[in-house]
Design brief:
The complex is a heterodimer of chains A (about 290) and B (about 325). Chain A is an alpha/beta fold and about 290 residues long. Chain A is built from 11 helices and 11 strands. In chain A, the strands form 2 sheets. In chain A, strands 3, 5, 6, 7, 8, 9, 10 and 11 form an 8-stranded mixed sheet that branches. In chain A, strands 1-2 form a two-stranded antiparallel sheet. In chain A, α6 packs parallel to α7. The longest helix of chain A has 20 residues. Chain A is globular, with a radius of gyration of 22 Å. Chain B has about 325 residues and is of the alpha/beta class. In chain B, strands 1, 2, 3, 4, 5, 6, 7 and 8 form an 8-stranded mixed sheet that branches. In chain B, β5, α9 and β6 form a beta-alpha-beta unit. Classes of the chains: A alpha/beta (about 290), B alpha/beta (about 325). The interface between A and B is large, with 61 and 52 residues.
Amino acid sequence: MLRDLFTNVKKQQAIMPNAKSKSDVPEGIMTKCPECKHVEPTKELGKLLKVCPKCDFHFKMTAQERIDSLMDEGTFVSMDDHLATENPLEFPAYTAKVKKDAEKTGLNEAVLTGTGKIDGNEVAIAIMDAHFRMGSMGSVVGEKITRAVEKATELGIPMLIFSASGGARMQEGVLSLMQMAKTSVALNRHSEKGLLYISIMTYPTTGGVSASFASVGDINLAEPKALIGFAGRRVIEQTVREKLPEDFQTAEFLLAHGQLDAVVHRVDLQDMLSRIIRLHTKGEAAQ
Amino acid sequence: MKKTMSFEEPIIKLREKIQELKEFTETNEVDLSEEIRNLNDRLIKLENDIYGNMETWERVQVARHPERPTTYDYIGELFEDFIELHGDRAFGDDAAIVGGIGSFDGEPVTIIGHQRGKDTKENVKRTFGMPHPEGYRKALRLMKQAEKFGRPIICMIDTKGAYPGRAAEERGQSEAIARNLVEMASLTVPVISIVIGEGGSGGALALGVANRIYMLEHSTYSVISPEGAASILWKDSAYSKEAAEAMKITAPELLKMDIIDEIIPEVLGGGHRDPKQQAKNMRTVLTNALNELSKLDADGLVQDRYDKFRKIGVFSE
């Protein structure tokens, strides 16, 4: 009892570090690499395509940053920015969450779609943004991707999809699940016309997105260390009760198991895409 | 003795009471036929009340009932000359998906379905009806074979989901499911899918890109298991019931959302109470669907499937 009194006094005297001194990196100006702890000015990191100069860690990109890093300047024209998410299951707090992420990202949903040029090659493109509801796929994401694929089919041009998604969006229930089928039937039509589809998997590509359009590119690429998989690591560990390797479900792991054509460093990505597209263009390939 | 689900206890108790009275009259010289008749009337009313108004979680229990008829049971009732065909020709034979050829009213068809076990030993063999990639690849092989020979494809969906495991990931679980979605889109033969139990996530959808989708009255179809949703939304799988209700996973709800074509009525209390009758209910629907789809040519079937999935989604412009 007496001892308790003393310890209480001690606790009261302890000085808690305030939130500011905890973080040694000023918010916004500098960015710390979560992998090697290297600190780089955020502006410089942007010039490096958000790849850590010390350890090659690929930071998440916003959809707009992806456009800026890949597409010929001024060529990108976005599509379907007017589509708006509803709350078909009347899921509690869903509308507010979507609205908040729309304000945060400036996007109407978790994917940005449109047409534009990469190194002079006309493509249709869909870029998922993991900053919006973890890039999860509900009705609008499914619809936007489907319309972009249909546009590519109509124009007879390649389709590129950058995946960054935790999977199907729970709050739209089975409607989300069916977006996997919707995007797939559209991709099938694109494919039947002999057109090229390149899937680029970025951190993270999991669940229903991994188990639909992301895995069926004519060419499947991924960024280094990207998390790619169907079931979550925790779920698997609970089910099979076995220790999973450190690199489980990384891009490199998938490459080793025959699930990818190549793992491509972000700095090389534009050139790689351009070469692939040119090699699928008959007659003009030599130019 | 069938496994009792908690919500049907009043029915079971009343049934036991009637049985007791019957036995009593057999061994004693008293006439209780009036009482028995009254209780029987009450039983019928009670069954209609309870079984006729099942809530979401009660349906989930029926869909998961250990004695609920499986793909094999329905194959036995609905098809003649069934021959099971095994293997994906690449890795192995997954017992969580079964398939083969048989005839339906004299016409050759291909049948493919998830296969649960009915006891622990069989469930271990069939990984509880949760397929590995080779299961989906076997299914696709059989679909392509059906297409070559112009046979309609009938799929039965009954899985908690694709198997979550290391080997499944290494062999490309995502790709196997995704490939089926894309390839099923272009099949030039009729495809009919019936959810007979649980339709869990992508692992179910991989047999579900069909011209007609039906659900047995008490089956469920969902983007994630109620337990999975509860542990994400409430950080506690004890809220599975709430999650199941919130996600709208029952046959009437899916019909309302225009995702399925029709509900196949179940025997009162669930298909397990009379599998033969349940199969008859399915036969009627299958016959109609095959007749309707036989009017479409190859392009028409592909177009029909495209239109069906193309329109799914709720949003505003």
